[in-house]
Amino acid sequence: MEFHQFTSDVLNLITHYDENSIAVNNQTFKQNIVVYQNQIDLIVNIDDLEKIHFKKIVKLKPEILLIGVKSNFKLDVSQHKNFIQNQIAVEQMRFDAACRTFNILMSEQRNVVMIVILEL
Fold first, then answer.
1. Which of 108, 110, 105, 62 is nearest to 83 (CA)?
2. Which string of DSSP letters, residue by residue, matches 13-79?
């Protein structure tokens, strides 16, 4: 699916996605990533989510954390509680729905982070 309505020179936007990839500002990724407002982190190993990325997300204090999944990924209950205790709403949904939601929230200038899990 292609997106065209909202553009930004400073914010990350999902410009395309398909079954096996996601494009952020026209840069295509075929692996798991974390998309921040103005930065993208590759998830080299799924175990790095908790060790590296979750800590960074909590430190940045987004209003909402979207988790877009294509595979069978489930956020650990203790990590979910950690985000809630830090006043970060967590929404896990299908990958395509997360991409659309991310762009809508960015267009509303909301502080959002999205984790994209394409493969485990």
1. 62
2. -EEEEETTEEEETTEEE-S-EEE-SS-EEE-SSTTHIIIIIHHHHHHH--SEEEEEESSS----HHH
What's this model's pTM, rounded to 2 decimal places?
Answer: 0.87
> What are 75-114's pLDDT values in tens digits?
888 888 999 999 999 999 999 999 999 999 999 999 999 9
Tell me the C-alpha to C-alpha distance, in Å, between residue 80 and each of 17, 46, 90: 26, 16, 7
Host domain of residue 107: 14-117
> Could you read off the pLDDT of 28-54 as tens digits, one per residue?
999 999 999 999 999 988 888 888 899
Please count the structural domains in the chain: 1
List the structure tokens of 92. Answer: 């896990």
